[in-house]
Amino acid sequence: MEGTIRKHLAAYGLVAVLLIGTTGCMGLAAQMLYVLKGHKTPAKFKGLENKKVAVICVSNSGTYGSDSVTYRVGQLVSGHLSQNVKKIEIVPQSKIEKFQNSRSWEKLDFAEVGRGVGADIVVAIELSAYSLDQGTTIFRGQSRITTTVFDMQKNGSLVFTDGPDDFIFPRSGRPKMQQSQRDFENRYLAKLSMFIGQKFFKHEMTDHVESNVDF
Fold first, then answer.
1. How many CB atoms lie within 10 A of CB 214?
2. What is the DSSP string of 174-191?
3. What is the pLDDT, as a whole number, of residue 38?
4. What are the C-alpha distances in Å from 9 to residues 6, 28, 74?
5. pTM for this structure?
6. 177 within a domain of the structure (yes/no)
7. How far apart are CA 31 and CA 23, in angstroms?
8. Strand ranges for the chain from DSSP E
9. Are residues 154 and 190 in the same domain?
10. H-helix or E-strand containing 81?
11. Domain membership flag for residue 212
């Protein structure tokens, strides 16, 4: 994907050169903005519109269940979907956690949770190999994500899977002396959740989140 974006940007550069000969500076700026903002990256899965959706994030760290990181990822991804998918209804994370806490996280069945919270669709995010450190002096976020979708209206059938993706950010790391771990983690989780969320809605190419890039 990163290579594709570079090709597009190179093409836009050629467009800019051509436009310089036919337009003034203001016209060039307006047309370049149109070109850059007019290119959309399509969703990998488009079936969330007009649906009640439960986003469930789980981790293999410690017990296979909810923790502060998975809860936040679930909330952040839910927020992105709510803002960018038409007529979607999001099941609150608190309702999902309450339902599964009455059962066993180690025997979690995504379709069962979906039915239990009244969802039409379950977006399941499995998070592993989560780390914020590269040595003792550098922050560099890393995690492996697999994203799957189950359709409750089709008997809980698996209808989409993507990954595993290794999401690394930023590529060159960030010195720990420049910010706190909490601030860095907030930044990393914001990027990670947008990376996951963008699988489900069309978005501007200029806003596309990639793994292994710098700030």
1. 9
2. EEGGGS-HHHHHHHHHHH
3. 61
4. 5, 16, 33
5. 0.80
6. yes
7. 9
8. 40-41, 52-59, 89-90, 121-134, 138-151, 157-175, 203-204
9. yes
10. helix 68-84
11. no
Q: How confident is the model at residue 30 (pLDDT cuts 50, 70, 90)?
A: low
The answer for 173, left when phi > 0, alpha when psi is -120 to 50, beta otherwise, is: left
Res 102: pLDDT: 82
Domains in the chain: how many in total?
Answer: 2
- Which of 76, 85, 110 minimizes the C-alpha distance to 200? 85
Q: Which of 27-31, 67-71, 120-124 has the lowest mean pLDDT?
A: 27-31
Same domain, 6 and 59: no
Q: Which domain holds residue 6?
A: 2-38
Q: How far apart are CA 35 and CA 10, in angstroms?
A: 12
Taking the C-alpha atoms of residue 162 and residue 44, their distance in angstroms, rounded to an integer, is 9
Q: Is residue 215 part of a domain?
A: no
Phi and psi torsions of 84, nearest 5°: -120, -10
β-pair partners for 162:
147
Q: What pLDDT is recorded for position 206?
A: 86
